[in-house]
Every structure is written in structure tokens, then in C-alpha cells.
TrEMBL record:
InterPro entries: ATP-NAD_kinase_N (IPR017438), Diacylglycerol/lipid_kinase (IPR005218), Diacylglycerol_kinase_cat_dom (IPR001206), Lipid_Phosphate_FormReg (IPR050187), NAD/diacylglycerol_kinase_sf (IPR016064), YegS/DAGK_C (IPR045540). Transmembrane segments: none annotated. Keywords: ATP-binding, Kinase, Lipid biosynthesis, Lipid metabolism, Magnesium, Metal-binding, Nucleotide-binding, Phospholipid biosynthesis, Phospholipid metabolism, Transferase. It comes from the Bacteria. Signal peptide: none annotated. This is DAGKc domain-containing protein. PANTHER family: LIPID KINASE YEGS, SPHINGOSINE KINASE. Its cofactor is Mg(2+). PROSITE patterns: DAGK (PS50146). It comes from Neptunitalea lumnitzerae. Residues 1-131 form the DAGKc domain. Pfam families: DAGK_cat, YegS_C. SUPFAM superfamilies: NAD kinase/diacylglycerol kinase-like.
Length: 295
């Protein structure tokens, strides 16, 4: 029986710079072995609906062609199924693909990975009712994303511009109560991020030892810092020397509870998508090896 594969393509991911050529894809997959179909997203979040269709059509592999946002929408629909996720990273940051060592600037090589079908089971993060596959946060990263999304051209330069602009506009988070492992914290940090991978996108990282299949999440907290120290951290991150920054508090855990003490809406980001939150309580858990991914 042929293996049914559906490619779901986000044509605007990564500014649409890397294009998927359907004929090239078809040429790679042997017709006697694979039945290949394509779907293209036409609007924001359309990938979810297209994945539901692809599931009804009994595809056994669904390939997300896009960045972390597209992967999140597609993979979220695959949780609880045996369907395998493939990734052709054509987004901007491509954090998850970089962690999984899927080639990010060579579509052909990424497609070859799908032909080979080496499958890994990965953990999934869950925050309230949302899934995340790479990371989530409620601090400075949400401000960066708000700025970043306003900038039209989006690759690395815009990201750095968004970080620098946000650094001067960002006020620390309001106080939160945090329960992690056996610790109860009362903090108003600069950054509060929970990661499933060791990637923040663009090969930047604050937690290079994080693994996607260890059944653990990495909580990274950066307390309030003078701005010059944060600029120093940015430089260290670019040089991949962030370990020399002594203001990072790091927990490895399965569960994190957060309580917002001020009753105003706030933003949460999951895999680069901003969500306006009304709930004051956030519960974050790990689902152990809950998704099959080709890497
Ligand atoms: N046809 C479309 N028109 C407008 N938006 C779309 C369309 N298709 C998908 N989207 C939206 O595009 C957004 C960005 O996609 P994605 O995150 O994959 O790319 P990226 O931001 O370039 O990459 P990364 O997240 O890795 O930095 C997603 O929120 C998705 O819902």
C-alpha cells in the first residue's frame, strides 16, 4: 500500500523567500511508493483546518512547510493521533527545525529527510488549553513579538531591530506567583520563558542543554536588570556565550503554575504566536513523547 503524504504549505512563511516547487517534490517521491498531495494556506490559522481535512483523507504523514507558527497549527491537530509530522522549514526563525537538525536553508535536503522517514518521538508543552512545541513566554519575548509583527520585512535584521526597540520600551512584568518543583516564587521578572527545545529561533539560545525528548521543560527566568546588562546578554547570545551571563535562573521541571496578581489582560506567546490572556492562572505541563516527527 502506498504511503499517503500531504504537504501543507504556508506561502507567506519567511516572507515567501523560499518557495516549494511541487514538481520538484513529486520528482523526489517514488510514485509507486508514495501518494503525494498539496494544500496551501490562504489565511492566518488556515493550516489547522487543512490538517483536519488531511487527517480525514487518511494521510499517514503530514508535512508542515513553514515556520514555527505553521508547525504549531499543524502539529496541534496531530496530538493524540499516530500521524507523523514532517517539517520543511521555510519560516523565519525555524526554532523547532533547528533543534531537530532539519536543514533550514535547503528544501531539497529537508525533503530527503522525509523520504528517509527517520522518526523521533518528541515531548509537547501544554499551557492551559494550548500546545507549544518549541517555547512559550509571558515576559520580554511577548513585547519583542508585538514589535516584530509590526515590521513588514521580517528576517534576522528585523528581529534584532525589534529586540533593541523593545528593550527601550519594555517595562517589567507585573508581579507573578510561581510554583516550580518545590519552590514558591514571588517575582516580576524581565523574561519568563518555558522551553521544550534549546532554540529561540535564528540559532539563538538561553538554554543550550534543553532536549525535546527528556520529559522535562526548561524554565528560564531573567530578573530585572539594568539595560546595559541586557545589551551585554544580547551580545553574548549572538556569540553563543550566554553561559557567561550570571543573571539567568534555570529550572528543569515537568509542571509550572503561574498566578497573575494583577487582574488585567496580558500577552502570552507560544511558538511565536501572541495570545491575549484573560485567565489569571497559567498551568504548564509536559506531554511525554506525544508526537511522532521525522528528523
Ligand atoms: N496565506 C496566509 N496569509 C496570511 N497569513 C498566513 C497565511 N498562511 C498562514 N498564515 C499565518 O502566517 C503566520 C506566520 O507563519 P510562520 O510562523 O510559519 O512563519 P514565520 O513567522 O516566517 O516563521 P517563524 O515562526 O519560524 O519565525 C502564522 O500565524 C500563520 O497562521
Amino acid at each position: 500500500m502506498k504511503t499517503k503524504i500531504c504537504f501543507i504549505i504556508n506561502p507567506i512563511a519567511g516572507l515567501g523567500i523560499q518557495k516549494i516547487n511541487r514538481n520538484e517534490v513529486l520528482a523526489i517521491f517514488n510514485k509507486n511508493q508514495f501518494e503525494v498531495t498539496f494544500k496551501e494556506t490562504e489565511y492566518c490559522k488556515h493550516a489547522r483546518l487543512l490538517t483536519q481535512e488531511a487527517l480525514k483523507e487518511n494521510n499517514s504523514i503530514i508535512v508542515a512547510c513553514g515556520g514555527d507558527g505553521t508547525i504549531n497549527e499543524i502539529a496541534g491537530e496531530l496530538v493524540g493521533t499516530q500521524v507523523i509530522l514532517g517539517i520543511v522549514p521555510i519560516g523565519s526563525g525555524n526554532g523547532l527545525a533547528k533543534h531537530l537538525e532539519i536543514p533550514t536553508n535547503n528544501i531539497y535536503k529537508a525533503l530527503q529527510k522525509i523520504v528517509t522517514q527517520h522518526i523521533e518521538q518528541i515531548d509537547i508543552g501544554k499551557v492551559n488549553s494550548y500546545y507549544f512545541f518549541s517555547n512559550m513566554g509571558i515576559g520580554f519575548d511577548t513585547q519583542v513579538l508585538k514589535t516584530y509583527k509590526r515590521i513588514k520585512n521580517r528576517p534576522m535584521y528585523s528581529y534584532i531591530k525589534a529586540v533593541v526597540t523593545s528593550l527601550f520600551n519594555y517595562k517589567n512584568m507585573p508581579k507573578i506567583k510561581v510554583k516550580v518543583n518545590d519552590c514558591n516564587l514571588l517575582i516580576n521578572p524581565f523574561l519568563f520563558m518555558i522551553a521544550n527545545t534549546n532554540q529561540l529561533g535564528y540559532n539563538l539560545s538561553l538554554h543550550r542543554n534543553a532536549m525535546i525528548n527528556d520529559g522535562q521543560l526548561d524554565l528560564i527566568i531573567i530578573k530585572k536588570q539594568p539595560k546595559y546588562k541586557l545589551v551585554w546578554l544580547g551580545l553574548l547570545m549572538i556569540l553563543k556565550q550566554e553561559k557567561y551571563f550570571n543573571g539567568i535562573v534555570h529550572y528543569v521541571t515537568k509542571n509550572i503554575e503561574v498566578e497573575q496578581l494583577i487582574n488585567t489582560p496580558y500577552y502570552l506567546q507560544k511558538d511565536g504566536e501572541l495570545i491575549k490572556m484573560e485567565e489569571s492562572h497559567i498551568s504548564v505541563n509536559i506531554l511525554d513523547k506525544a508526537l511522532n516527527v521525522i528528523n
